[in-house]
Structures are given as structure tokens and as C-alpha cells.
Write a structure and sequence with these properties.
Helix content: under 10%
Strand content: 35-45%
CATH topology: Jelly Rolls
Number of helices: 1
Shape: globular
Order of helices and strands: HEEEEEEEEEEEEEEEEE
Amino acid sequence: MRNILVAALLLVTIAGFAQKRQSLFNGKNLDGWTIWVNDPSVIPGKYFYVKDGVIETPGLPMGYLRTKAEYSDYRLHVEWCYPENPTNSGIFIHTNGTDQQWPLHYQAQLKHGFAGDFIVNAAGEKATVGDSTYVGTEKVKPIAAKSNPSNEKPAGEWNSYDIVCKGNTIEVSVNGLLQSKAVNCSMTKGGIGLQAEGSRIQFRNIWIEKL
């Protein structure tokens, strides 16, 4: 009888986690996402697309893929890979306002060798990392350097970001290692974005878990 009760409790716990976790990419199409590219001559569906079960972009011209829904208080998991030349990209957090080259948002850096850096991209928005407070302007997008040396894998291999947003705090971990913690963030809710900025990059296994 005791084993039956334990099994039942385990099933209830698993079901609870399954309900809290929400996949943002179904592996087939980009339902739930919208594409912005800074060159109107580029066909959006050829700029961000699904290939072999992963999201891919050639990386140029600049732009991003953004969730239509907004989120707050969550853990985000994203895996990325530069299949060829690793250059630059980023994960947009709390994206707000009009879609443009630099929308209102915070960014978890994906520039090769600098994953884990925290960027305040929003003009007038701010965040505190360590002992410093960073304030974004139209021309200045301050970058708070990661806490540890780079722990990224080389081009052709998959890396993971786990980003925890709770209230006005954002924690950024690369391949399981905490690299940045921002507090007193003035934005606490918004869309999630995947940036194109340099070369071909792929994304997979994208999900959020409500806190």
C-alpha cells in the first residue's frame, strides 16, 4: 500500500512540473513567434525558419525572433549552436515596445566568448550587477561582464542558457554555471527574443517554467 501511495505522489509531482513547464518551440514551425528584420527586402520566412527540428537564421542582416506572448517570473531554458563561424547573437529578456533594431529589453549575450555577459539595451532602463548600476541610453548599451571565464563549447557543439527572472532580479547561467546576476531591474515583464547578428546560428529545446 505504501509503495502505491509513493507512486501516486510521484505521478502527481511529475504532472505538476509538466503543467508549469511550457515549450516555446514545437520543433515544426514558428507558431507563437514574430519576426523582425531591419531590411524590408528580406522575406521573414527565409530569415528565421525551422530546419531539421531546430530554429535557424543566417545571422544577417540584423533582426530577431520574438514571442508574441509576454512573461514574468519564470525560468527560461534555451540551447544554441554556431554550426560554422561563431560570431554574435543574444537572448532578449523582457522585450517591450515597438519592434525595431534595438527594442526595449535586457540581453543575455551570445557573442562568442562572452556568453553570460548582461546587457542593458533599453534607453532609460537600468539594472545593478555586482557593485555597479548600469543605465541604458539611445547611444550607450552598457555591458556587465560575466563573473567567470568563458565556459562556452566550441563551434559545432550545443550550449545551454538557463535564465531565471523573478521580480526585479535576473540570473544568467551558461552550461550550468551562474555567470551574471542583475538586481533592481526596472523592467520585469515582456517577450523573449532570439537575435540574429553576424553568422548562422541555431536554437532548440526552448521552454519556460513558471516560478
